[in-house]
Amino acid sequence: MYESDGLWRQVDAYLVETLVDEDAALAQAREDGALTTMPRAEVAPNQGKLLALLAQMTGATRVLEFGTLAGYSTIWLARAVGEHGRVTTLELQEQNAAVARANLERARVSERVDIIVGPAADSARRLIDADTEPYDFVFIDADKPSNPEYLKASVALSHPGTVIVIDNVVRDGAVVDPDSTDARVQGVRAVLGDIADDPRLEATALQTVGSKGWDGFTLVRRIR
Ligand code: DHB
Ligand code: MG
User: Fold this and answer.
1) Which secondary structure element, helix H or strand E, spans residue 199, and what is its range?
2) How far apart are the first and last CA of the chain?
3) Domain 5-222: CATH class, spelled out
4) 23 CB contacts (<8 Å, ≥6 apart)?
5) Quick check: 80 and 51 in contact, CB under 8 A?
6) How far apart are CA 164 and CA 21, in angstroms?
7) Separation of 93 CA from ligand 2 center, angstroms?
């Protein structure tokens, strides 16, 4: 907790109230985060809308997501791609997938979403082996130690122009510690290094404060 935490929350509440339409299905999906193995890990409403806007700006019709939980960001992305778009979302836990299925139904986007249950690296490997048509937009928001593996799979499943967003890259500032013993921090540092070293990828990262505390995301574009 930080001294400004309360104000960050108030500002987020104001921005969301002013600009972000969260219907009953989205609100329920957000609340259902409590029924998953990782309560409160879903993106904030204004972050969900950012993902939707980015997907639409990219003209994305094919979206890949690592980490479904209750399906909150999945709904934002599924609505963004429209009724002819597809979202494939990878979730480790059947418990979470069951919660997500109900939320996707309520949001009326089930028909455009495939939830694949199991370790995301294995699921992604099967998509690669099946020569799956490349995705236009990828959201990586699952277990952080696996970020480097998820990036590699995402690039294998991408085309020049694909946009990749990686959540939670700041973690209360912990990202700056090269000696961190937190495997999640090391997962973030490793993936940022991999992005920097890959000539196919252009990227930036932003710190964020708000209802989710102090964190941030990386925005990546495959350029060749
Ligand atoms: C954690 C993961 C998330 O995706 C998130 O948004 C917040 C926290 C976590 O691993 O603690
Ligand atoms: Mg996250």
Assistant:
1) none
2) 41
3) alpha beta
4) 107
5) yes
6) 24
7) 16
pLDDT score, position 3? 79
Whole-number Å distance, alpha carbon 41 to ligand 1 midpoint, is: 5
pLDDT in tens, 106-151: 999 999 999 999 999 999 999 999 999 999 999 999 999 999 999 9
* Phi-psi sector, 67: left (phi>0), alpha (psi -120 to 50), beta: left
pTM: 0.98
CA distances from 1 to 9, 24, 82, 154, 169 (A): 12, 29, 38, 33, 18
Tokens of 118: 């199991």
Atom of ligand 1 nearest to the CA of 42: 6
Report how far residue 89's alpha carbon sits from residue 82's, in angstroms, rounded to the nearest whole number: 16
Assign 3-class secondary structure to 93-146.
CHHHHHHHHHHHHHCCCHHHEEEEECCHHHHHHHHHHCCCCCCCEEEECCCHHH
Domain boundaries, the chain: 5-222
Q: Is the CB of 41 under 6 A from ligand 1?
A: yes
Is the separation of the CB atoms in 150 and 121 below 8 Å? yes
Q: Are 147 and 167 in contact (CB under 8 A)?
A: no
Q: Whose Cα sits closest to atom 11 in ligand 1?
A: 41
Q: How many Cβ atoms sit within 10 Å of the Cβ of residue 123?
A: 21
